[in-house]
Amino acid sequence: MKNAVRSTHGAEVLGGVGGFAGMFDASALRDYRRPLLATSTDGVGTKVAIAQAIDKHDTVGQDLVGMVVDDIVVVGAKPLFMTDYIATGKVVPQRIADIVRGIAEACSATGTALVGGETAEHPGLLGPNDYDMAGAATGVVEADDVLGADRVQDGDVVLALGSSGLHSNGYSLVRHIITNANISYGDNAADFATTWGEALLEPTRLYTTPLLNLIEELPGVVHSLSHVTGGGIAANLARVLPPTAWCDVDRSTWSPLPVFQVLTSVAGMRLEDTEGTWNLGIGFLAVVDASRAADAIAAINRQGIDAWQVATVRMTDRPAGDYEQGAKGVDGGAVRLVGSYAASSGKGAE
Fold first, then answer.
1. Mean pLDDT of 140-153
2. Which residues fall within 8 angstroms of residue 174, CB to CB, at 6 or more apart?
3. What is the DSSP pairing of strand 334-338 with strand 246-250?
């Protein structure tokens, strides 16, 4: 575990592993005209219950980094460092090592130093095989380069970036479906050529490095970004649009990944019923200059992530209809999903 953590440390990290506080040399911030610190904190949620059920703990660390660090890149910030917290009923060294190794590997992939953490034993509150985890990260962005709704213009194009699966949201619904269908996480899932538990633990895709590369490669092209987490596509996109803006996200531009189709089939639900809970194959949304949308798609594709256009932003009078607006307390734009999902050969089905 210590080796994994140390692998995320550059010359900026002081004090090594095991101190009461992690230290990070902030001298590099002198190169900024007006550096703004960006911070985020989150957990993995009830996805850890599946990891515990099949005793597989080497992927939930990546989920944690995805939930925390990928929120920072939404404003265009480069992550600097992260800390983690694991609470468990009983410390099992190998299990903790697996979790932290996953966190460290994902931190390395996003250019984030893992400068410290805490493991707490809570017997009586948590069972011996139970644990929960959380993390917090800090990044930096030049004040003039902050991305957000104020940069969005009429006619901007909304690009979708494909997800790797469920990521780390909507697992209470997942577990409800599995329980009601009398499925065990160790059962073979023919649709996925693996067990149900392993299929549902597919780790969260990490977007920080590809998006920072995109911003650097195409200066000024990306206007705002949205991390599709709790609340689904419409609610999260609405948060990064100005109040005067609206857009219709065209479902026909992609086909939700098989995991979503199989789960809704098992539950007897429609994909549309889950739009406020799951990402349905879109992990991030980028609002970009329409004249460079093709360049942005190509740049994202070169980094191994499927990208495609799903909407156009408008600031004209909004048509009648049921739009999501003001999600999570943000006085943002209005978004709805329209049309029908494409067949499984479409975008997002890989």
1. 97
2. 50, 166, 200, 263
3. parallel
Contact (Cβ atoms closer than 8 angstroms) between residue 99 and residue 57: yes
The more confident residue out of 20 and 303 is 303
Rg (CA), the chain: 20
- Decide if 13 contacts 163 (C-beta within 8 A): no
Is 64 exposed, middle or buried, given 0-12, 13-18 or 19+ CB atoms closer than 10 A?
buried
- Distance from C-alpha of 273 to C-alpha of 32, rounded to nearest angstrom: 46
Three-class HEC string of 71-87: HHHHHCCEEEEEEEEEE
Decide the pairing of beta strands 222-227 and 78-88: unpaired
The DSSP code for 131 is E
Q: How far apart (Å, rounded) are the C-alpha atoms in residues 310 and 158?
A: 6
Instruction: Using CB atoms within 10 Å of the CB of residue 339, give its burial: 0 to 12 exposed, 13 to 18 middle, 19+ buried.
Output: exposed
- Are 14 and 24 in contact by the 8 Å Cβ rule? The answer is yes
**Cβ–Cβ < 8 Å for 102, 61:** yes
Backbone angles phi, psi at 334, to 5 degrees: -120, 135
Distances in Å between the Cα of 323 and the Cα atoms of 79, 95, 150, 152, 170 are 33, 44, 20, 19, 21
Q: Give 267-282 pLDDT, tens digit per residue.
A: 999 999 999 999 999 9
* pTM for the model: 0.93
